[in-house]
Specification:
Layout: E1 9-10, H1 23-35, E2 41-43, E3 46-48, E4 52-55, H2 57-64, H3 68-80, E5 84-88, E6 93-97, H4 100-103, E7 122-123, H5 141-145, H6 151-156, H7 160-175, H8 182-199, H9 201-213, H10 222-229, H11 234-254
Antiparallel strand pairs: 1-7, 2-3, 4-6, 5-6
Length: about 260
């Protein structure tokens, strides 16, 4: 769903917004601001209000060049501090920017009389009269702290494929109640980076997927070495060993 030609104005106070230091969350939020409907419209018989838009995780991933897993994480962050709400059906999801009318109000300055230093402001009018991005964020700061930052991944500059697989692995570990601490996470990412440089992103991504499928506690990087040497893995190795032993028995009988 494309936004009409036009513009929005970002107040400099956006730099004081609690998510501003998270590049990907800020990127996604501004993208939603730019692409949200600026007037009520209809799509497939559904009324889409001003400040809303139809989304899909894969669609947003393509539009923003973020991985689908990253898009999901960023959306959850924005929901946690009440920047957006969403409503899903079997066929689509509507996202609502909670204070869009305040950000983009063209007719009144009433909401600009109570500025604070806590949140950024966004408006289509002059930058001297800007609404607050969200006045309820002070009450939600503790909630937002529970969401793990993406900065360690950004430091390693992984490809979209590996970033998505690493996010899947971290989610898998959290579900097993084995969440990484900062030092352990950095060590894991270093291992992944070193193996990706040696064996390639696709091979490492496959090993991460197979480790989760096998319900392992850790990523079995040794499989990468076995693959590079052409050695069989897992059950294939045991089958080959069994065949070798049977062949030796047959040879012993012939003698």
């Amino acid at each position: 769903m494309k936004a009409d030609n036009g513009f929005i104005t970002l107040h400099r106070k956006i730099t004081e917004w609690e998510w501003y230091d998270d590049v990907k969350t800020t990127r996604l939020f501004i993208h939603l601001l730019v692409t949200a409907n600026w007037k009520d419209t209809k799509w497939h018989g559904v009324k889409i209000l001003r400040g809303q838009r139809i989304i899909s995780r894969d669609g947003l991933a393509k539009e923003t060049h973020l991985s689908p897993q990253t898009v999901r994480t960023c959306l959850e962050r924005l929901k946690s501090t009440n920047e957006i709400t969403s409503k899903s059906t079997n066929t689509y999801t509507i996202v609502t920017l909670v204070n869009y009318n305040k950000y983009q109000d063209q007719s009144t300055n009433e909401i600009t009389s109570q500025p604070t230093n806590e949140q950024p402001a966004i408006n289509q009018q002059s930058t001297s009269n800007q609404p607050q991005l969200n006045n309820s964020n002070n009450n939600n700061k503790e909630t937002s702290k529970d969401i793990p930052p993406l900065s360690p991944l950004e430091e390693f500059n992984f490809s979209p494929l590996l970033t998505e697989k690493i996010q899947d692995w971290l989610t898998y570990k959290e579900e097993r109640k084995q969440k990484y601490k900062p030092t352990g996470l950095k060590s894991l990412l270093t291992q992944i980076s070193n193996n990706a440089a040696k064996f390639g992103d696709a091979a490492v991504a496959e090993v991460i997927t197979s480790s989760m499928a096998s319900n392992y506690q850790g990523i079995v990087f040794d499989r990468l070495k076995q693959q590079s040497r052409g050695q069989p893995q897992g059950d294939d190795f045991m089958d080959k060993l069994k065949r070798v032993r049977e062949k030796r028995k047959e040879q012993a009988i012939d003698i």
